[in-house]
Amino acid sequence: MPYVLYLVALAICGTAIWKGDPPLRWSAAAFIIGWMLTPAVSNLSRGDWDMPVAVIDTNVTLLVIWVSLRWRRLWSAVLAALMLLLVLARVVALLDPDVHRYGFLAANNVIVLCQMVVLVVAIWVTLRGRQKARGRANEEAWS
To answer: Measuring CA to CA, how many Å separate 91 from each of 57, 84, 107?
Structure first.
């Protein structure tokens, strides 16, 4: 099941890079790079906290926040907030010993699912905006 979800997420991010505008491309590329680096460094952790993965998540969060501040789109602000929640969930799991590992993983999966929904909405909004702009250009050509 995780592989199927990775493929769906990869398809969503690939569509965002293929059809999206620059903020959508930057955000999707950050997610893909983060997903590629995470398995490569996840075995380097010692102890309870996965520090290399936390560093990758923090860098992806900073990049998505930069995209949100640079282009000021609502979906990018929501995406940045979800990335910040992902990093905060990791910190809470570190600081609170009562948080079970499966609880953290479930929270992580819910946040990632919400991120994918936001990316799908962003793709739809971008394509719809292009279609409307094309329609207005065609109307002006006839006048």
So the answer is: 11, 11, 13
